[in-house]
Amino acid sequence: MSAFSTRAPGTDGPRRTRRRTLALCALPVVLLLIVALFAPLPFSLTQPGETANVLGRTDGKPVIAIEGAKTQRSDKGRLLSVTIAATRPETTVRLPDVVRSWFREDRAVMPREAVYPGGGDTEDAEKRITKEMKDSQHKAVTAALRQLHRSPKDLRVRLRLGDVGGPSAGLFFALGIIDKLDGDGAGGGLTGGRTVAGTGTIDAKGKVGAVGGVPLKTQAARRDGATYFLLPRTQCGEANAELPSGLRLVPVSSLRGALDALQEIRTDGKVPSC
Question: Which is higher by pLDDT, 227 or 91?
Answer without folding.
Answer: 227
